[in-house]
Write a structure and sequence with these properties.
The structure is a homohexamer.
Chain A: H1 8-17, E1 20-25, H2 39-54, E2 58-59, H3 82-99, E3 103-108, H4 114-129, E4 141-146, H5 151-161, H6 171-180, H7 187-190, H8 207-213, H9 228-251
Parallel strand pairs in A: 1-2, 1-3, 3-4
Chain lengths: 253, 253, 253, 253, 253, 253
């Protein structure tokens, strides 16, 4: 059930059945020579839609722009400052709480969002924590899950790509987008040979430094290994992982 | 050319040809008994994609969550506070300026965004206006265009729906989404009879007041008139209107 | 009744009779070769005082500094960033709500304020809209009216100045200040011939760009036509327009 | 020379002669049974105008709304939060620096502003202090002077009112406004007998506490002693004090 | 009783006996040729600990970093912007109010903090002042006391150092730290002869300006007179002064 | 070398030798029945001082108040909101960059700080990343290291306390403070028997929820096992771990 494609009466009815919601959150940033700039938003969007086809859950629109300051030296990358992203997450959660949502699961596609989104959750909680008479406020729980961090996905990535997986512009995430948007990337680009085959690794600092260290944008990966077929397998694994994690979150005391 | 489905090298190449970009911006809010909650985001997304199929322009990911505080008494509506939305727009524009984009056209689908987005543009300009030595800064121009405000669309809406168009949950915007997402809304809901047929009108204040005034969410409209066929016509009109307005913006001295 | 020239007991008594207040809001910015820098603040102040002489209404002190970032390349112009002006408007409204004012009418003299002030109203409303238990909060309505936008004023400006009215440093607003402050501007300056007679028009971006486009500060106008006599007529028209609009606002359901 | 009643070309010319400016800053808050709510803004405005008639100095529009949170339990009082007032002062100073003003003298009428305005000055300075390459930035100095704190005014207040001066709604400030706005306050109110004759004193905390401690708004004063005649003497003393302090500020190394 | 060295149960028990707390607040900034960079934080920390050995009071951890923008041209100085320090003070007070603390005494060691901390107190009070139904909120009082401003300390400093006391890097504060940290400063540095013996005085503006005016960091002082013996006397005087002031604060109606 | 006990000239000299600095950062929050409220600040302070006795490094004053919103239902806990802590970290880093520090190592004692501090680093980097002409800005690197996360400490904790270590109010951190402040905690409290012996575990949400889940404040631990002797061993391990990590950070390309 996609929030954007529902009516408010349908959401009212859903809230009688469940108090949980999935919010896909990603980023808009370079993903190396053959990855989509939207990779980190497209992946959680795809997985969240997969979830909604299997279980009764509402999926909010994807927050497509995340914290990607380190990618700004590559054309097309867009970032929110961490303080802006925190404000966005806080407003979104407060809007959902207004309707009675009590469990907000952020399905994330971008490592660079993790710290900021977690800090934002604490900012949300602090609103009630400072209040000594907070008893009659609605209780909300927020959780962040990375689609790429589940057990099935981790195992599959290892099997498929081993030491070529790396940590940015990975063949796994690129495969997932090739599966989801099979016609969007020309063959010529898909098969770009990488040089060096495995990209370097290193710390992530500011944008100019990032580009010096990682000249084509990749970190530690060889995304020329990406295929739609691998993407399909990863998709099913990711949906299962995410459903499991979400249901554990819903069920938790 | 969709930013999310491009590589950074493709954007580099694009920037050799053009310095303009389209940023669809919408809202996630109730749209009456038979309109999608995502209407205001889906419409500019659809139109922007239509533009990108006709002219050489990059389309950024849709900013799906806008300023919708007045809709919060209806389930599923999500808002950013105006101050948050201003920070988002400012960060997005500053990111684009970083790459050399000089003309940022926000294609808007929600009247409630207009004031805040315009204020955000001034916040962006103020950054350089305060600087008496601003000469070597990149110059940027921002413009807001509402997809529903072009000449062709206005004329067509009038012809199609006359006095039943109203101002929120209009048959025009609902038609456009039925054209774009033909299978998403069950027939039963599409054909919901409205009571009263034409919704009331009035001022927009806070959320509780809005719900008192407009009990099913519509303002002045009868969206039961919406059809995919009308949506198709509106789509073509909107794409033409928006291309015209964007090209005028690009060409302006 | 001017707030600044009243005692708190008089305001207490007024609140027994009415819940409305006028807040004049303007700007401090260049107004071409023969216009006062304070034009946009002086005009609504004058009109608001005129209103208070005809009807029982409290007039707050004028917010003289508005959003004028685009004028900063001309000496004497002062701006608040939009985010600052929003905070000011919010604090003012919250102060008034504290006392029981329920209808705050901002009588505006500067087009550049409109977007920001409207965004600020939404920021105020959002405070209660996020609150699902908002019922016992005081209800407030905010409205923005431009003194120059009423029917009588528009008609009169057209009659008096026709195509020389323009949109910044207009003969109408300059006339109004000549009527209000007849001795402040030397004849020599008042009668400055304009070159070109009608100023150019164009978009408003940042300060450096503004100065390049509009070298003497005017947009589309010939303020050398301004006279105190025209100002007097405009004054009476503006007071009538504003009273009508304010009373409609007070009476609205 | 009043900024609001000047043209930008006149300010350009002034900047050839001087780099100083006076910014009157006050507050809009209750001033006891017979004091104007605008007292703290009217006084510095009056004194600043007096200065401008004696020396060649530009006077900015009065910042009429200051930090008056403690007065909010009395009708008509309006406050900015300290953080808002800091943003206002910072934007005003940055605007003035843009034009080449180098010495900004804030002539203050309200004790409650002092801490916040001083903090704002440090916020302004910090902008350049953090910059290790700040050499080419314009240098600005800000100073706060209270019109009531000069030697002549202090001596005169003591002579005129002795132990009845107090610290809020003082006979001195009330006298000054009676001199400046002789017709605004009806005799009946002017001569209100005070009970107790001298108001209590105590700490200033939040608004509800303030009203409990100081039921009619005064602190330590008997403003029934105020007269226009005393106001006239205080006016001349204040203008002399302020000119002396301003010229010392301009001349300082 | 030091908060950091207590358990939460001990604080619970303390709150049965008292509602007051001491929060030492200082700064980390250059203190001339022979003063510790931590002087302004070490002094109130030492005095607060002395207080806690004589009376039953909880001492919070020292806020060691204050508002020191003007010292940034000297290595090792660290500042918070005033707006940041205000947010810190507000969060600290709100945390303490959460537990039932009702009187928060900030024992300060740095003149540069005074304006900002006072502004922060008003920001705290404003939270309740804006609320017309604030009755059931916990009431809190905040007070700022400078350890160096008590009667005993002022008299002693005058006796010990007379005209060599100055206002920054004073022999009094340096002595106090020599008493508290006797081994931390090598004799060679302690006895540095000052040139000129008494440092210049002048206004405090931004960091670059400060360094030009006060090349070795001192203002008006000769800290080569500082000794641990003088520090010991000052310590006892300061503890007595601060206890007296704190108890007056606790007892106040 | 402690920053607080140094002169600015000593820091100047240090900067000739090194561009690195240690900033201990902790929290002020309940630590169960027998742990100090200051545990999370005291531990990194102790370890950082240990580092400075072994290698040539400057240690900044401890940031004692961190992000501890979830502990606010226990008396004595103090928090900064995440947004406030981000502003603090940003101002501290910008101050250090002003002097030429290029590697800022935050030695952390509190898991609750991690997300916010990392987000703050990105906020710092974003300042330069948005700037397309950032080349001449000083480059800075920030790193967060938890004193309890090094290899030696992890191994030792496991050996000493096994499954009783838990994650809040751990016997390891409590031991370290007993070693550092041997006389501060009465034997009676140190030996408090815990009930249940091992505290429960669970998610961390807001303050009221935390107290319901973890009634005496511990999570998963039995801190009655803590001893000064264990603390001494942990101290040496932590100093070694932290030195190793810091030197790796300094040496990194």
């Amino acid at each position: 059930m996609l929030l954007q494609l529902s009516t408010w009466q349908e959401i009212d009815a859903y809230l009688e059945r469940s108090r949980g919601i999935i919010v896909p959150i990603g980023s808009t940033e370079q993903h190396g020579p053959n990855g989509f700039i939207g990779t980190d938003a497209l992946c959680p969007e795809l997985v969240a839609r997969g979830m909604s086809e299997k279980i009764d859950v509402v999926v909010a629109p994807t927050l497509s722009i995340g914290m990607a300051q380190h990618h700004l030296a590559f054309s097309g990358s867009i970032t929110l400052r961490p303080s802006t992203l925190m404000a966005v997450v806080r407003d979104v959660v407060r809007s959902l709480v207004r309707h009675g949502f009590e469990r907000c699961y952020f399905l994330n596609g971008h490592g660079g969002n993790v710290a900021t989104v977690r800090a934002a959750f604490s900012e949300v909680y602090a609103d009630t924590s400072f209040n000594r008479h907070a008893g009659n406020e609605p209780e909300v729980r927020c959780q962040l899950g990375n689609w790429y961090d589940g057990q099935r996905v981790r195992a599959l990535s290892k099997t498929l790509f081993g030491g070529a997986e790396g940590s940015h512009a990975t063949p796994s995430e690129v495969s997932l987008t090739y599966y989801g948007w099979p016609d969007a990337m020309p063959e010529a680009i898909r098969n770009t040979p990488m040089a060096p085959r495995i990209a370097p690794t290193g710390p992530i600092l500011d944008a100019a430094d990032y580009r010096r260290r990682f000249p084509d944008g990749r970190i530690g990966s060889d995304p020329s290994l990406a295929t739609p077929e691998a993407g399909e397998k990863l998709f099913h694994a990711a949906v299962e992982d995410a459903i499991e994690d979400y249901q554990r979150f819903l069920a938790a005391a």
